[in-house]
Amino acid sequence: MDGEFSHLDAEGRARMVDVSAKTVSVRIARVRVEVLLNPETMRLLVEKALPKGEVLGTARIAGILAAKRTADLIPLCHPLPLDFADITFELDEPGGRVLIESEARTSAKTGVEMEALLAAQIAAATIYDMCKAVQKDIRITDCRLVYKSGGKSGVFQTD
Predict the structure, then answer these.
(1) Is residue 11 included in any domain, yes or no?
(2) pLDDT tens-digit profile of 101-130?
(3) Is 129 marked active-site?
(4) Cβ atoms 145, 117 nearer than 8 A
């Protein structure tokens, strides 16, 4: 398969990758993303005083739901039985940043990077949605895979 695109057949048509020959293994992926807020919006978030309600709990549930629905949204993703999905938040109040980390785990023949990516991004978009009434210039930035394990390629880790 060297030099070939795994999502294209011999005629160049998009296809789902055949993972039937792969071995089932525990696979984990973690993704981080940042949401940048102004000081007033951050204060309202911390004080749970935003007009649309409790932001982080809603964003956590939205992210988990996104992980569970990834195959419905990304056309060539395999539907995976998730063993675990979660979203955690770290508030950097002086920096005006909400640091989001998603984690997805499965025991399957293919990885959960897309589930973790979608979970983090939907959690960030939910924060945006719930804060946009008080701030229009919210930025979602620096979304990246920070950890992956399982399968043939082994462990990938970055900061």
Answers:
(1) no
(2) 999 999 999 999 999 999 999 999 999 999
(3) yes
(4) yes
Looking at residue 104, which CATH number applies to its domain?
Answer: 3.30.70.640
- Given a contact cutoff of 8 angstroms between Cβ atoms, the answer to whether 130 and 55 are in contact is yes
For the entire predicted model, the pTM comes to: 0.91
Max Cα distance, the chain (Å): 56
- Which DSSP letter does residue 9 get? -
CA 43 – CA 145 distance, rounded (Å): 29
Catalytic, out of 83, 86, 129, 137: 129
Angle at 114 between CA 152 and CA 46, to 5 degrees: 125
Q: Domain residues for 64?
A: 25-157
> Within 13 Å and on the Cβ side, how many CA atoms surround 120?
27
Total number of domains in the chain? 1
**Residue 79 falls inside a structural domain:** yes
